[in-house]
Hints:
Layout: H1 12-28, H2 72-83, H3 87-101, E1 108-111, E2 122-125, E3 130-131, H4 140-143, H5 146-156, H6 167-170, H7 178-188, E4 197-201, E5 206-210, E6 219-224, E7 228-240, E8 247-254, E9 261-265, E10 269-270
Antiparallel strand pairs: 1-2, 2-3, 4-7, 4-10, 5-6, 7-8, 8-9
Helix pairs in contact: 2-3, 2-5, 2-7, 3-7
Amino acid sequence: MRSDHLETEPSAAARTRRALGLILIAAASTIALAVPSVAAAAPVPRPAGKSVPASIGGPASGTVAVHLAAVGIDLCAQDGYNAGFRGSYLVTAVAVAMAESRCNPGAVGSNPGDGGHCPYGSLDRGLWQINSCWHPEVSEACAYDAQCNANAAYAISSGGTSWSQWSTYVAGTYLSYISSAQAAVNRLGTGNPPSTVPGTILASPSLNVRSGPGTGYGSVGQANYYDTVNISCWTTGDYVSGGYWPSSTWDRISDPVTGANGYAADTWISTTSDVKSMVGHC
């Protein structure tokens, strides 16, 4: 994502370079938009189906729990593994969770009454957006507990072999998260989540790096257009209306090229996925 742009108006040539740069980035990979923490994907009918086993509160039988200080997509990978997902099933599970909730344990989506099985409406809850009407066996406490939600998803999806109850799977939305899901699964083998993730500066000719998450903080340096910077965490600060995906998200970055180290508005920094799913809160 991105930081506040320099106050000077870029030249026509700079604007052209910025536009061309954005096109090239979009062609190479999907630029992740800053997305809300509340999942709003339209639900598909969920058959009453399977119940969640009594062991839902802990890891699936026979698995060895992985314990990381994980957040976002790494949290989904960790808890999906602990629930029992393995191999390509784990990658798919993590991608589905990203598409459903951006791997936010507190995500909730509201559905209106359907005049049928769920006449009073329902809620899609937690990491894998477990529906309250079709799966009342998953309590509220469980639904918003990351590991318990993962265990429920494992049971409902028959160990990752059946995802027909998830609209993002049926629509294919989850596919855009497969590569980042695979990377998160790969990180499980290292025993540690990443300390930083890379981002690309899209502001031309350069971007102010500040001492805090807002334009009122002093500049501590600059990051040049198309520099690859290291993002260590994100936080909420001043709303920045410029850039490519205006938001109040600011990233803590360091630029190996210029040596700048501080905060920059997420709207000027491109990452492979939503930064909130890749690093922790500052």
